Amino acid sequence: METIIQTRNLHKTFYNGEVSVHALKGVNLDFREGELVVILGPSGSGKSTMLNILGGMDTPTQGEILYRGTPLQNMNKYELTMFRRKAVGFIFQFYNLMPNLTTYENVALATEIADNPLDTAQVLDEVGLGDRKDHFPSQLSGGQQQRVAIARAIAKNPDLLLCDEPTGALDYETGKQVLDFLQKFNRTMGKTVLVITHNAGIGKMADRVVYFRDGRIDKVEVNPHPVTAEEVSW
Question: I need a labelling partner for 21 at 20 to 30 A (CA). Which of 1, 148, 166, 212 fits?
Answer without folding.
Answer: 166
